[in-house]
Amino acid sequence: MSVSSLDVKVRKVEKSRISEIDPANIQFGKNYSDHMLIAYYENGAWKQPEIVPFTNLSLSPATTFFHYGQAIFEGVKAYKDPNGNPIIFRPRDNWKRMNRSAKRMAMPNVPEDIFVEGMRQLIDLDRDWVPSSEETSLYIRPFMVAIDEFIGVRPAEKFMFMIITSPAGPYYNKPVSIYVQDQYVRAFPGGIGFTKAAGNYGMSMYPTQMIKEMGYDQILWTDGFTHKNVQEIGTMNVFFRIGDTIVTPDITEDTILEGVTRDSVLTLLRENGFKVEERVISIDELADAHKAGQLKEAFGTGTAASIAPIYALTYHDNKMELPPLETWETANWLKKELADIRYGRKADTHAWIVPVK
Ligand code: COI
Question: Which domains does the chain have, with CATH numbers?
Fold first, then answer.
């Protein structure tokens, strides 16, 4: 199937639910747009995708993913450009990453046209759901689950790929406080840390609940061997500015998600002459830099949160507070630069934008 030939069967809602949305108060993940895309994989092939009214699903209690978590997802965003037209940010990169996750989880490749062209048609139909004010977007959630009706443990043969969308405001309303986790581990080399497998998020719930009870917002995950080298924060990639250098953990060990926002940030920083290093970063190095007054900025990056500033990092009893946000040259510049590209206010020199029409 080529991108242009994708034939999607469309069944539209009788009445839109858009009036349920208060554009002045859009919360992340609370409301879902009128339609969803659904495609089934059976006998080694994908069937024709359909766009149908957003509705509940009916599945056997024996469905594979309920039991064994053979489930992966992606996060993409659509924005309104200055002319009011929806544009999608880097969906092909999410498509490629979804297929890297699929391979590791013994799931089939999703064809590019079902993912990208299907998404484009879905957003076109629900274009009124793409909010237009600053810091808002339409969050797009493609996902795939194994749907064999079988509770034996084996890679499934039937799968369902879906795309749902949800108008979104900011994921975090203020800078976050981080607790450095050295007891629970997110990812090991050879594991699934580089994928967007549901289990990576499920396993984080208990440690996150514990640190929230202690008054922190998110976890800084460290490696499972030394418990010193930082990996990700919460559900985001992490960046630090030490002196004049921006550092982020490298992704060579399969433990870190290859974030699309991470890549956008690295590209923009390098193009604009910032000194950038992808390498091992230990919590001791961060503590030393903080002591020497050189830990200037710290932020998470992700599709949902975009650029999320960190105001304090706590490692055991060492609370490392960052300088006031107004003084941060890198994160503040990046946030504006990325927003200008995503909202179509600045020329798209990287071919990151996919217009909906
Ligand atoms: C994203 O940033 O898109 C994520 O996947 C994070 C989260 C909402 C799970």
Answer: 3-170 (3.30.470.10), 176-342 (3.20.10.10)
